Amino acid sequence: MSVHIYVETYIIGAMKPEILFNILSDPTRVRAIMLIQSEGEVCVCELTHALQESQPKVSRHLALMRDSGIVESRREGTWMHYRLSSSLPDWARDIIECSHARLTDLATFRRDAQRLTKMNNRPERICA
Hints:
This protein is mainly α. It has helices at residues 2-12, 17-23, 27-39, 44-51, 55-67, 90-103, 107-118; strands at residues 42-43, 71-76, 79-84. Helix content is 61%, strand content 11%.
């Protein structure tokens, strides 16, 4: 049922607060959103490395966030890159930005950022 709600919200284009907070209630998704906010855009391989999670798990969470309208993706060869959705309402973007500003010093988020910084062979980004 919850998947139906996410898809319905995305199709209608009206992000609801309960959808955003439901997405942010999962630790893996919060950690991914913090990295996306910090970097602007990240590849799935970067998230799997930084979060130390399997690719299927990370991809499943990203798909849920994409279907809910929080992130958008683009393909570059074999790489899938994710960024905050350009159609994200201002109030939702403000919540993510404020959360990022307040949470980046917490140990979990700091470790994620450090692992990402130390990652070898990160995909190059082409500004879109």
